[in-house]
Design brief:
ten-stranded mixed sheet; D-Maltodextrin-Binding Protein, domain 2; alpha/beta; 45% helix; 11 helices
Amino acid sequence: MTSAPILPKRLLLHGVLALGAAAALLPSLAAAQAFPGKPVRIVVPFPPGGSTDLLARRIGEKLAAAWGQPVIVDNRPGAGGTLGADHVAKSAPDGHTLLMGVTGTNAISGALYPKLPYDVAKDFAPVSLVVSSPLVLVRHPGFPAKTVSELVAVAKAKPGSVSFGSAGNGTSMHLTGEMFKLAAKVSMLHIPYRGSAGALQDLMGGQIETMWGDFLVVWPQLEAGKLQPIAVTSKQRHKMLPQVPTIAESGYPGFEALSWQGLFAPAGTPPALVEQLNREVNKALASADIQDYFGSRGFTLGGSSAAEFQAFIQGEIQKWTRIVKASGAKPD
């Protein structure tokens, strides 16, 4: 009669730990395999018609085709996008409710809103960076300042007389304006709207003088000559506006502000499911029609890993927290 070999305690312990780790992964893997079990909602924290809404709809079409389940875009505007973001933060972490988050909702708002109902760093599981682009500082053709230096001169001659529109308090458009005011040492009047479409309409109507706009939103009006570009907020000139200088080369070295959109799940979403979502989003972003549509409209397509997006978000939170504190920007 042969006796079973006696394993060293160290090996037994390693075996138990390995079994425990495998068991812990089972719920995550099961959730990923069963996903999606019903229609998926992508919450857009702004009204229809803006770049975030259009992006969510285009990506949603690709995901719906891949999953065989409807992907519904759920517009929940308000409070600079934080109402929609808060809804997702408090949703079930099962991948069926996602957020098309932006610079404002997932980087700026934590510093701007003293009683924000969610934590920008802890209440979301970053899935993937989707797109990024510089903003374009545009003006109504009737506004005489055609360059950054002329704009600064007008703003200094009549402090508070020059207005700039944004998609709402706490958005990248708002804080880029605050960043510019700090850099140029000028006083300008911020006019927040419930999304880019309202700001664009008032700018074209002459109710406001300038706007920091997403490429996708302002490009058709620039092509039509209904608005005029003053500068872009990237470090280098943009390929679609090679004749338009950057803020940095207009007397403010180092000035850079990017508008970005990315997909987020609620915190607590199983890691395997986050990775599955990441793969599907990256596959959608790599498709020729998505590349052509958004690339031709001034965007840089993302396609990051979940870990890379997490690191990017941390850097953005730190950057915009500094701007909020230095500018004294308030949500109202």
